[in-house]
Amino acid sequence: MNLIDNAWIPVRRKNGEKTMIAPWQITEGFGTDSEIIELAAVRPDFNGALIQLLIGLLQTVCAPKGNSDWRAWFNKPPSIDELRKKFASIVFAFNLDGDGPRFMQDLKIDNESPKVETIEKLLIDAPGESTLGKNVDLFNKRNKIKRLCLSCCGQALLTLQINAPSGGQGHRVGLRGGGPVNTIIMADSLWQTLWCNVLSEDEFAVLAAAGKSQAADKFPWCAETRTSENDRSTTPQDVHPAQVYWSMPRRMRLKLSDEHGACDLCKEMGPIVKEYYTKPYGIKYDGFVYPLTPTYKNKDEMVLSVHQHEPLGYKHWLGYVQNTDQGAERARVIAAAFSKQLSNFRLWAFGYDMNKMMASCWYEGVMPIVFIKNEEQWKRYNKEIEKLIQSADAVRDYVSKAVVKAMNKSVFNVVRQRFWQETEAEFYRQAAFLREEIIQDRDVLEIRNAWYKYLVEKSSNIFDDMSQAEMIEDVNAERVAKAYNELRSSLDGKKLKIDILGLPQEVKEDYGNKNSNI
Description:
Blueprint: E1 9-13, E2 18-21, E3 36-39, H1 44-61, H2 67-74, H3 80-87, E4 115-118, H4 129-133, E5 148-149, H5 150-163, E6 182-186, H6 190-196, H7 201-205, H8 215-218, E7 251-255, E8 260-262, E9 269-273, E10 275-279, E11 295-297, E12 303-305, H9 317-320, H10 332-339, E13 344-355, E14 358-370, H11 375-407, H12 412-439, H13 445-467, H14 477-491, H15 494-500
Helix pairs in contact: 1-5, 11-12, 11-13, 11-14, 12-13, 13-14
């Protein structure tokens, strides 16, 4: 099976039809009722991996020279025949089976007394050895996945290599560490979504050593693995930029047989795989920047990839959409989208929340993004958005602490998540108003004031609901009143109103007497 030539990627068309395509078919039916609008894998993490594979293919063989070349293909994409010819140059590196180099699989491992693992362990959320040993596989039960078809094997292998979590001594994490967040620009069709996330040749070339021209510099499985015994690292100076999409931190190779049957994931009949070979000390990547992942600086000023540990929401605008003064930077593809002046798009963010070797949760979500072409207005808009988000973050902290004090229980995360979820719709409403006011060069103080009043009301409602959620006889009236008074003082304080929102001091709210509600 070849992952360029064969149809193995599940997609959904505009007319609702679900089918399998080869990568070169991504423009098939463009502009018609049969155009491909989205991926349709059996698992969301597979969709996340496949979108990166398709972006990586385009970036590797079809990178535009500049914005004019990029725009030429955006609305009039290449035909499937043209794409097939372009992808033909790398077909040799995308065999999933066979005797030679195999996609994302170690070239020599089966000659080195490797360990044999069940195919289930290709899945990131499969229970690990520690979980099984303690008999605590409560959510993802052991032995559910015993057989995978070649299509699902390819998807699982890709997903694990680009997201590889900590796996014990010598089992290397992915190029961005375990559980990185991905931020993808979304458009109305699969083709436009993919093309929106492809950088120009020059933008991409700076990510590693563009002069490295051997096949293994791009596709590491085409030669013996650059292993990491004695902690040897692989840096951007050692590889071609394309390897950021084709990283191989884990030494693995599928153990193939002639057996046929039903896949335990997709239920399709065909050749199946039950086991794979594995050994430690795959490639140890160090110092890479991935085009789809935002970054931040740690206390030592090292640039690191952002990892996903909570649901996506407007709080992530700072860092995912907009850079911050604290060193958080949006992904390269997001910056490039603004340089192309894409006026409106959606941001699809996703990733595993990894607790070392264990997948705690898969998070994904979509947020709308707007852009103002006038540079000065755009800068002003960003500053005002920052005020709205920073004020919400402060109020989230105030109400979380107040509820914890009132209930005398550790419910920080519950309150915080509820606050972000319940204020999201209003944030986007105010953000839309803000854009229109700035385009008209009008004062936006009233929007800040309306947002402040909304935050006060919402935080008070959340406090009321959660602090008195138990039976009335169990509520400690004195403790609740004291916590609420502290919340009221914070909401009316200088930090929120003046330092963050820049409101005049006379803006006040009538909070009422909390004792009268108990």
